[in-house]
């Protein structure tokens, strides 16, 4: 039993297919962005303050660990 060949899309369909997919993707992006609940100015400010405080705290912690480890390695004579 012979299998029927499936019709290959023409050149125009192959060229336009990526653009159709891109258009559908961008429509989906637009739809999702309309559903987003954006934070208010106050919330954005509060989140920013929290992030800055957390970054400073981690920087101080890591700096102190580095300082202590450097002092220990110098005391032992490894550095």
Would you write up a description of this structure?
With 79 residues, the protein is an all-alpha fold. Helices cover 77% and strands 0% of the residues. It contains two helices and no strands. The radius of gyration is 29 Å and the shape is elongated. The mean pLDDT is 86.
Keywords, separated by commas or semicolons:
single chain; 79 residues; mainly alpha; elongated
List the helices and strands and how they pair.
Layout: H1 11-35, H2 41-76
Q: Name the beta content range.
A: under 5%
Helix content, binned percent: over 70%
- Got a strand count? 0
Structural class, please? mainly alpha
Measure the end-to-end span: 80 Å
Main sheet?
none
Give the overall shape, derived from the CA principal axes. Answer: elongated
Low-pLDDT residue intervals, each spanning 5 or more residues: none
Q: Count every helix, treating DSSP H or I runs of 4 or more residues as helices.
A: 2
């Amino acid at each position: 039993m012979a299998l029927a060949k499936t019709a290959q899309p023409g050149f125009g369909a192959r060229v336009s297919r990526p653009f159709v997919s891109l258009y559908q993707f961008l429509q989906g992006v637009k739809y999702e962005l309309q559903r987003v609940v954006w934070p208010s100015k106050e919330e954005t400010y509060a989140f920013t303050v929290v992030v800055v405080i957390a970054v400073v705290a981690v920087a101080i912690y890591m700096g102190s660990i580095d300082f202590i480890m450097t002092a220990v390695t110098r005391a032992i004579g490894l550095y």
